[in-house]
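To fix ideas at the outset, we first show an illustrative case, written as a sequence plus integers encoding its fold:
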Amino acid sequence: MRIVVALGGNALQKRGEPMTVESQRENVKEACVALSPVAVENELVISHGNGPQVGLLSLQASSYDDVSTYPFDVLGAQTEGMIGYFIEQELGNVLPIEKPIATILTMIEVDADDPAMKNPTKFVGPIYSKEDADKLAAERGWTVRQDGDNWRRVVPSPIPKRIFEIGSIEALLATGAVVVCTGGGGIPTMYVPGDYIDGPHDFNPKRLVGVEAVIDKDRSSAVLAQDLNADMLVIATDTDAVYLDWGTPDQRGIKAASPDLIEQYEFPAGSMGPKVEAACEFARLNPGATAVIGALGDLTEILAGEKGTHVNTETTTLEEYPRG
């Protein structure tokens, strides 16, 4: 099978842990142990989150001086390389030495007219007092919003349209390689009107540029899986399934559902909601394929259909796991 596994942030940085290289490497090592059997038996593509890493790099750059804040497309590229290196090394330590592994810096096209571009909602970076947030907004052109008792910067989260490097990813898969790509939702880019350039053509009608935005990792992973005609998209998170009535005595896990059935329920926008949306999008656009939301440590059981929440168009009734 051709499988895309989207690693959640907990695969790289567990809650409450210091963001050291050692802790990140240990978490990646644990993830790669779970991924290794899948890599041996299937075509495997790995995407991953990068939120904490981008936040750290942004802070490091801005602490250097007042003008060294790097744009988010550049930070995304930096973290794709760093995390890809961790995964390549740790996965290579548990796979046969002849198994190739490659990381691709992945640019994602977004639409300049996406409504999200005019309505930034994605919180990024550290917290500030209102006074400091307003000062930074004035100095750097940021949009800031209240986040609880504090203030933070917000950036757009546009919908991913396409992955520029999909041909290169396909070519690597054809060689038997495990491919690491679309990290952090991919590097956000968009086309703007071109200008005159020195080169073989007199005029470039459009020019690709980076965007100060963050693309949802799970949405990009769904586009990746769709473009690759994957048999399965696994959205790995820190829970073993999608739950109804979560946190109540009546909570129960969903074992299988169609997109139409699972969309009858509401899930938190800041956590499970985007994962369910991405799973439904992939399943609808790829009849016969399945999206699964579950725990990375359950990957073998997920592939066997024994764990996780399986979303596909062939399911006709919503099936729940037994309680307890």
